[in-house]
Amino acid sequence: MRVGGWLRHSGRTGALLLASGLSSPVFAEMQYNFPEPASAGARDIYDIHMLTMRITAVLLLIVYSIICYSLFVHRKSRGAVPDQKFHLGTFGRWAWVMVPVLVLGVDLSIAGSAEKVLHSLWLVPKDQDMLQIKVVGHQWWWEFEYLDQKLTVESRALPPEKAGEHYLRDVDNRLVLPTNTKIRFMHTSADVNHAFWVPELGMKKDAIAGYVTETWAVIDREGVFRGQCAELCGTWHARMPIVVEAVSSERFKTWLGEQQTVAAAAAAEAGADKVWPKEDLIERGRNAYNKSCAACHQLDGKGLPPAFPPIVAGLPFPAAAALTKPLEERGFFKDGKVVLGSVASHLDIIVHGIPGTAMQPWGQLNNLDIAAIATYERNAWGNDSGDVVQPADVEKARAAQATAAAH
Amino acid sequence: MSTAISIDHDDHHHDIPHGWRRWLLSTNHKDIGTLYMIFACIMLFSGGLMAMLVRAELFTPGIQFLQPDLYNNLVTNHALFMVFGAVMPAAAGMANWMIPLMIGAPDMALPRLNNLSFWILVAGGIMLIFSVLVPFVPGGGTPVNTGWTLYPPLSLQVGMSMDLLIFTVHLLGVSSILASINIIVTLFNTRAPGMTLMKMPIFCWAWMVTAFLLILIMPALASGVTMLLFDRHFGTSFFNAAGGGDPVLFQHLFWFFGHPEVYVLLLPSMGIVSHIIPTFSRKPLFGYKSMVGAMVSVGSIGMLVWAHHQYTIGMSLAAVTYFMIGTILISIPIGLMIVNFIATMWRGAMTFETPMLFSIAIILLFTFAGMTGVMLAVIPGDIQYHDTYFVVAHFHYALIPGALFGLYAGVFFWLPKWTGHMYDETLGKIFFWCTMVGFNLTFFPQHFLGLAGMPRRIVDYNLVFTEFNQISSIGAFIFGLSQILLPIIIIKCVRGGAKASAGVWEASDGLEWTLPSPPPFHSFTEPPVVK
């Protein structure tokens, strides 16, 4: 931002610091308090927040006034004489009782009002007909599963040129939810800890591998609500936005129908025993790679050493042995450089990941996408191996592993 | 207070050792105290430099010059350097210097242990620096990008710098436990005749509680990181859900250490302030007994509320209710401390030398941090505040005044005693005001950032957060640059200045002020009598 712009803003900020967030929003474009709540729970939270803030502001005002009075009056330069007996007076003898009782009173009144809200927030209703959303955190994207509707949405950050003013807060596929419906969210993680947070819905819950944590909400107005991952989850923690689009129940039903049709068509296409031409695979592979793989291995395939290896053969990968050794065992690393291993080994890495590293299994992708990614990786950026991997090869790779596991 | 001290004792005692032996092999509480503080100063400026880099990166949206892992590494190490490298060693240095002087002892009770705990700390510091540097070496693996909380499973993905960090924690833990044992033994066994526990100076009480806390909590952290080490290298699954382990267990172990650690950082400084305010108000500390009681209860309640750092992990309603109410109750002893400070100033005759200015600032700013602390303790609110810049603002308001400014106040309060010279009061006041402006400009806007929805520990942010981040960064540069005045003032004071008397301040009270400034190499060779 230009210096002039900054100066203009700082003037407003001065007034704002004085207001201390107690007054209503004056400067709409510069947010300094919670966004407008979109659910009863979030509204309760907002009220508790404002209540505690007001109580503490009043207390601060009292304490600061006493201190300022004392600083002004009880100074040596004004000829003040210290009262050496002050601590022996009534206040001196009973302060240790009076102060705790007073503070306890304030504490209990705050805790009392919080307790009621806490109950309704914490205890997720047990209704049978709630919309159930399973939220799975991945490094670094979100997976939303509409459990009863058998629909999965993968949600990834959009690059800056597409996100525009919603830089870092826009995604390719939104989490679409109906208004005035009880929704249960169940959070878990495929790798490290994440936290699902949408400020307008007043919910923040950690997504932890091996745990399923619950929250719930009834969204009471339509709109687009933006949040992001709130638990440090590694390199691209800053690029894990969550965008909720709340729509009417009718529109939600229509949307669901559309999505299910699209998903069914895609599954049919990927499952068909079709042999794809190389160009189609590469084109499809580029899209799938940029979506699923580029966060770590980068758009240019050069990776981010020492954390994420390059895919371009011939590039060095200076990293710890814990990362280079599994690659070497799989034929993708030799003499400090990345090399192109066999197709079978390549598919094995994509389908099953490399345990103990950030390379997670991508078996949830369909055969077509995996075949396309492998083809793209083996032919892009000068890798020019000419290899073409077909969906049938991926099916074989899955089967081979299953047989190996069975033995 | 009548005391009988022999001042010219150098004639009939062994010589002061010279050269490197004086420092490396030192068993003298003052020399070791000085070493601790030099170490702390180096770590303070390294940690500060990291904070400056972080704030420079956050000046505008977009990734400027720090790659995300390096950014996360600086955030992590800023915390580790400040907590383990700067504040704890500085407080331990002051304990070393002042406790024997305050209780009329010749030295610490276990002088060789004292030497050992300092040099283990240095070893830990070097290990920590290795952990920062090793990712820059080819094949050194990824930097620690987990934040100082080191939560698995993320910490299982990190390269060998995490192993070095684990050993650092072990070394620092051993060092603090040894130092704590020494302080407890000294306080219980070497007090001057007549000095009962309830006549002990309040700084000594603060350190007594701190030392017990350290002995109780350090093993929890050490066991947590040891399990992490085993998970990383020896195939165990303490924290790996796929192997039957529990990633949340680490969080409990960490915060069982981490929350009382806040009071470890806070209490010594509160002890220092409890000496400064009476001195410059020219009237005794209000509520000595309730102060002792408040410190003991802060320490004890503080050990029972750790999970308020983990409200979002999905605990049961009963558990979070307990942790919420327990946490809010901490405001009782803290409130009592603050009231005691204000009542000490009340109807006094105040003057405003640099230590007093810092102490007043601590009362004002720490009270503010206490208020945001109550807000954070209330779970419905915390659901929104958790892991946002509101938390960052809160704990910097708590720990910079509550720990660092208390240590600064102590430095200015005792520098004349340590060096025999008065420091430059004008420079001291300039330092104070620059620090105040910089500090508040840095951290006050961060409250708004948090409420508006900016999470912590992100290298890049949406445009709506730009303005407050820029104000915060500019504040940080003012804050950071003004700290350069501190070593200048200290060096100037060590090299010369107006001669300081034994009492130094007009209304100083206590055994430490009966010795000349600077005190003799061996503090009290004959025990003073306290009536």
Write the layout of secondary structure elements.
The complex is a heterodimer of chains A (407) and B (531).
Chain A: H1 3-19, H2 40-73, H3 90-122, E1 131-138, E2 141-146, E3 151-155, H4 160-163, E4 175-178, E5 182-189, E6 194-198, E7 203-207, E8 213-218, E9 223-228, E10 241-247, H5 249-271, H6 278-292, H7 294-297, H8 321-329, E11 333-334, E12 337-338, H9 343-352, H10 367-379, H11 391-406
Parallel strand pairs in A: 1-5, 4-10
Antiparallel strand pairs in A: 1-2, 2-3, 5-8, 6-7, 9-10, 11-12
Chain B: H1 19-24, H2 29-57, H3 68-103, H4 111-133, H5 154-157, H6 161-189, H7 202-233, H8 247-281, H9 288-302, H10 317-329, H11 331-345, H12 354-377, H13 379-385, H14 389-419, H15 425-452, H16 466-482, H17 485-495
Highlighted features:
heterodimer, A: 407 residues, alpha+beta, Immunoglobulin-like, 5-stranded mixed beta sheet, 3-stranded mixed beta sheet, 11 helices, elongated, disordered N terminus, B: 531 residues, mainly alpha, 17 helices
